[in-house]
Amino acid sequence: MIDASFLSWPFFEDRHRQFAGDLNAWAAREIKPLVDHHDVDASCRRLVRRLGEGGWLKAVVPQAYGGISPSFDVRTLCLARETLASHEGLADFAFAMQGLGTGPITLFGSDALKEQYLPPVARGDAIAAFALSEPEAGSDVAAMSTTATPDGPDHVLIDGVKTWISNGGIADHYVVFARSGEAPGAKGLSAYVVDAQTPGLSIESRIDVIAPHPLATLRFEACRVPLAKRIGGPGEGFKVAMATLDVFRSTVGAAALGLGRRALTEALRHASSRKLFGAPLSDLQMTQASLADMATSVDSAALLVYRAAWTKDQGAPRVTREAAMAKMYATEAAQSIIDKAVQIFGGLGVTKGVKVEELYREIRALRIYEGATEVQKVVIARELVKLLEAQRSGDLDTVSGQ
Ligand SMILES: Cc1cc2nc3c(=O)[nH]c(=O)nc-3n(C[C@H](O)[C@H](O)[C@H](O)COP(=O)(O)OP(=O)(O)OC[C@H]3O[C@@H](n4cnc5c(N)ncnc54)[C@H](O)[C@@H]3O)c2cc1C
After folding, report:
1. 68 close to ligand 1 (CB < 6 Angstrom)
2. If you measure from the C-alpha of residue 366 to the centroid of ligand 1, how many angstroms do you get, rounded to a whole number?
3. Which of 27, 126, 218, 220 could be bridged to 158 by S-S, CB 3.0 to 4.6 A?
């Protein structure tokens, strides 16, 4: 990383600076030998284990269950994702899914669920996953059709199909959202932890994407799950999912920031060493304009990401607007930064094995998952209207917006 001056911003404490520096040094040393892009399952298993052994997965669970902070410290999560993504997309993925796949348990699970599931995930002994999306319910979560039907007093039977499930096929357990029927639409969903070995759960197919990582479609057929594995109350599934995404959405922005920052570094190095028309490429004013735009976008994205993370860490109950802005801006900006980097590399930029080509494939899905850019726009606009309505009705502090 050429410019780490953002770490001196007032969003951070010394523990964050230490964490980012140590993780960066660890990642530079450890990650490369663990990754084989032709075998993403084995690579992710190795990455999870080594991230656990290195103590980095302690950032994804609370202190009481083997973590480093009393609850989620979103700045630490964002720094981890930014740093890991700048080294290797799969390492960021392995880290992020341990957090997203247990986030609902951390936020809403019973003590027994936390005791059972969180420590192994923090040690890197178990792999987690988050199963919300379905073939007919992606952006429109409330259209979900997977059902959880009572089976005796203490169990439910889960039936349905989940798709686009990261870690599908290698996870030890899945947080599964299903229609439990307390009310129509979003109010009739519940969340359950389903162990991968549960009879009735199968991997229907694996999905191959442009930046490969473990991804699958799951089928649930009369999959019998104890009610004790429900996360939160009956009908609270949507609330559980949204609160989890409220924590993790800005971390997607952080991952994009890491990819974008790496692209800027690569582009700068290339532009200053590649000779064109008798001088370095970086002497050409149009290249300078590109580099200036890229650097400004990196800093703008960082400001939005760490503003959202800091706000959440200050105890804001929800950071819906801030996290949506961070996710939307950082992912869109990173796409444009990486595209500019590819252009600066010329033919080399689209050559397999060159880092910017990998970044170009890696960034694309981040503009779609955990709420596509269009969904974030809807969220931001709705939050602004809510703010105005609250101000009009007089029950809002106009300065803090709380
Ligand atoms: C690599 C990858 C990993 C994923 N991992 C997981 C996972 O681990 N767990 C999980 O549950 N899901 C996961 N997903 C699923 C992801 O969350 C969905 O793909 C996403 O929610 C979009 O749903 P969809 O693909 O069905 O697209 P659709 O819902 O069909 O949307 C298509 C497009 O419509 C546009 N759109 C959406 N809403 C609006 C709107 N209001 N106005 C205008 N345009 C709009 C957007 O451009 C969107 O991309 C993953 C997806 C990918 C690609």
Report:
1. no
2. 10
3. 220
The Å distance, Cα 313 to ligand 1 centre, comes to 27
What is the per-residue pLDDT across 90-129, written as a single tens digit (0 to 9) for each? 999 999 999 999 999 999 999 999 999 999 999 999 999 9
Name the residue among 29, 38, 41 with its Cα closest to residue 353.
38
Q: Which of 236, 370, 383, 389 is catalytic?
A: 370
As beta bridge partners, residue 276 has: 279
CA pair distance 373, 146, nearest whole angstrom: 26
How far, in Å, are 16, 41, 170, 208 from residue 90 at the CA level? 23, 10, 14, 14
DSSP state letters, 151-182: ETTTEEEEEEEEEEEETTTT-SEEEEEEE--S
What does each C-alpha distance from 128 to 31, 81, 125, 149, 244 come to in angstroms?
20, 17, 10, 24, 14
Count of residues in the chain: 402
Residue 220 main-chain phi, psi, to 5 deg: -115, 120
Ligand 1 touching residue 161 (CB < 6 A): no
Q: What is the DSSP letter of 191?
A: E
Write the DSSP assignment of 58-89 as a string of letters: GGGSBGGGT-SBSS--HHHHHHHHHHHHHH-H
Instruction: Centre a 10 Å sphere on the Cβ of residue 24 and count the other Cβ atoms it contains.
Output: 18
CA-wise closest residue to 83 among 254, 317, 289, 281: 254
For residue 380, give the nearest of 335, 326, 309, 331 by alpha carbon: 326
d(CA 66, CA 342): 41
Q: Which pTM does this prediction carry?
A: 0.96
151-173 confidence digits (pLDDT tens)? 999 999 999 999 999 999 999 99
Nearest to 238 by CA among 104, 371, 373, 147: 104
Q: Is 374 in the pocket of ligand 1 (CB under 6 A)?
A: yes
